[in-house]
Design brief:
With 221 residues, the chain is of the alpha/beta class. Helices cover 29% and strands 29% of the residues. The protein is built from six helices and ten strands; from the N terminus they run E-E-E-H-E-E-H-E-H-H-H-E-H-E-E-E. A six-stranded mixed β-sheet has the order 6-7-8-3-9-10. It has a four-stranded antiparallel β-sheet with strand order 2-1-4-5, with helices on one face. Strand 4 and strand 5 form a beta hairpin. The radius of gyration is 17 Å and the shape is globular.
């Protein structure tokens, strides 16, 4: 059986609005295994980004547990979170968030951990994602799709167990968006990673293995 990479157990998150407490997440439970690509959909403001932030160790839940690679993250001190994220998680954002003054290959080399420095891996990632021709280009010289492909490569560059993608098609047209999601899917399968994508784009849902819907704080598979 494939290894369990991410598990959320009865996760709750709320915020106070005057005298009322509003639950963004209510007993959210999720399991994600190696080689599995899952999507979380739901209306704006339903808590999708909150779910991703808790999964990515950027936000703590009010209650419940988060396990990454079998380790209970509630036992990790907050000052350890950065190290946990760097070693275990790759992030893909709505906008590529590339550094304007670095060429594509330099973007990847910058984020590659010192103990994992491997120019051959950078080469293979760029070729696999069809961005080898962008190697010496700055972000301003690339198309929107090319920039997002570089961002996908950056997310995988440290060989993380878990990939978290926050609306990766938001700034792309439908064709480019589908190509980017398909590339994420292929890399998840090729490298046997686990990935969650938060998206409004239901046209790409046929590319994922599992779909969760989040409404009124409830996460339903």
């Amino acid at each position: 059986m494939d290894k369990l990479v991410l598990e959320l157990k009865a996760v709750n998150k709320s915020y106070q609005d005057g005298k009322e407490k509003h639950y963004v997440l209510k007993n959210a439970t999720l399991k994600l295994r190696e080689g599995e690509f899952a999507a979380v959909v739901g209306p704006s403001g339903s808590g999708k980004s909150t779910l991703l932030a808790i999964s990515g160790m950027m936000l703590s839940p009010d209650s419940g547990s988060v396990y990454i690679n079998g380790a209970d993250m509630s036992k990790a001190r907050q000052k350890e979170w950065t190290k946990i994220r760097r070693e275990n998680i790759g992030f893909i954002f709505q906008n590529h968030q590339l550094l304007s003054y670095l060429r594509a290959e330099e973007q990847l080399a910058l984020f590659q951990e010192k103990d994992k420095k491997d120019s051959a891996f950078i080469d293979s990632m760029m070729k696999e994602l069809g961005i080898d021709k962008c190697r010496k280009q700055f972000p301003a010289q690339m198309s929107g799709g090319e920039k997002q492909r570089v961002a996908v490569a950056r997310a995988f560059i440290n060989d993380p167990a878990l990939i978290l993608a926050d609306e990766p098609t938001a700034s792309l047209d439908s064709e480019c968006g589908r190509q980017v999601v398909d590339m994420i899917r292929k890399e998840v399968k090729r490298q046997n990673k686990a990935a969650i994508m938060v998206t409004h784009d239901e046209r790409v849902l046929d590319l994922v293995d599992t779909i969760y819907r989040l409404e009124n704080g409830a996460l339903v598979r």
